[in-house]
Amino acid sequence: MEISVHFYSYLKELTGCARTVETLAADTTVGVLHDQLMEKFPKLTAMKKSTLISVGVEYQPRDYVLHDGEEVSLFPPVQGG
To answer: pTM for the whole thing?
Structure first.
């Protein structure tokens, strides 16, 4: 299955791109996708525990099972001020 992944804020700088398409096996979870992205873009590893991940318009836990064609977005932690 193919999943579109969008990077926001300084995660774009860490990856060098705003978007990528990943080919995954059926029943892949958000956590497995995140691990795969950190292998592809090693600079993301520093943000592993604080990266927010949404599927569509809702944040999802790492055990969420992805479906073909879904859009995943990675965000840095939200900061207020």
So the answer is: 0.92
